[in-house]
DUF2332 domain-containing protein (Roseateles subflavus), 390 residues
Amino acid sequence: MTAALHLSHLPCPPGPDAPAARTDWSRVFRAFAAEDCPEEPLYQAIGRALAAQPALLAPMDETPPEQARPNLYLAALHSLVMEAPASALAAYFPSVGGTRIPDAALPAALAAFVEAHEPALRALLRRRATQTNEIGRCAVLWPALQHLARAGGRPRLALFDFGCSAGLNLGVDAYGYRYLDPQAAPGQAARLEVAPASSDAPVATCRWHGAFPSPEPGFALARRLGVDLAPLQVADEADARWLLACLWPYDHERRARLSAALGVACRQRWPVQAASDGLAVLESWLDGLPADVQPVLFNSWVLYYFQEADRHRHRARIEQLMAARGLWWLSAEAPAHSDWPADVPLAARPEALSAGSATLWQWRRAGQAPQALAWSHPHGRFAHWLAPAG
Ligand SMILES: C[S@@+](CC[C@H](N)C(=O)[O-])C[C@H]1O[C@@H](n2cnc3c(N)ncnc32)[C@H](O)[C@@H]1O
């Protein structure tokens, strides 16, 4: 879940000598309901109901500190509801066909559900992480790769997705895209439609500000590989359910898109590897690439997982690969986790993007200043293209 992150009420890990204070989860969930899910009435109501019944929050004490946040509990609850669509609680979840709006009976249904599923809930909280794989970002990745290929004069690309989750963004050339004018009225035709490679592939819609992409891809993916600390397997039922459970229950559009992408990925089996040192995998992968293929390292919403010192070390290793091996680096991250290119002042960020959710797309290659390509909504709902056309 990479919606705007409000971190002020999240627990901080204690310092080495501090006594381990028990987190006041009721306070954390109350704040979450009030601030973090304005578009999700069900999670607002559940957050309030949990805050009022602190015993239901006891399983939160088992979450690893870096994952201890309401989003994880809600994803675990959602996953269990998806497995129990006949439960009273499921009646409130549109994602499993529920139509009941949050009402006075919700707190009791929630308590009964949590009590009945507590061991499974605890297991999910211990083992899982809030881990999305947002293919809406491919609506910006597709023109970004198009731009790299054209501007760099290298149409055959090899895409290496660092922090790929389930590897769904490796299918950027399989999905379809609808690029709308920024002010398009509902139902208005798209300015540009890119057809998906197959009829079952998802189509992502993006409101586009600035120079529109060319209708021709202009690039071909000759090779692709994804790495992740803990990749999710698209063909594994529990992993696929977890990816869907990390979406919010009222978000029909993302759920439909993700389900379709999972179907395509199950067929295509784009290669994804577990790796604790993804750059070491990248380095040996570069060794096996044909000379006419341009390697592109891509990361989207990954660098915020890094401590600052690790991020600097990570960047230095990539810069070495850029200089020595001709690697290009395409990065789509929040500005705080990106190198800030001198030509894109923060003030140029579109107003609709809050500092916590704005995604800055940048391209770097050896011997050239980083180029800012676009600002986008974190899920690709809209984008402001900054680079010259094509
Ligand atoms: C928010 S998800 C984004 C996934 C995908 N890039 C996308 O755009 O949908 C972040 C992913 O980064 C992975 N990750 C975090 N640190 C990593 C590291 N050091 N090496 C590899 N993967 C990492 C996490 O496991 C998670 O799957």
Summary: The pocket of S-adenosylmethionine is lined by residues 2, 131-134, 137, 162-165, 169, 227-230, 278, 300-302, 305 (CB under 6 Å). Confidence is low (pLDDT under 50) at residues 1-19.
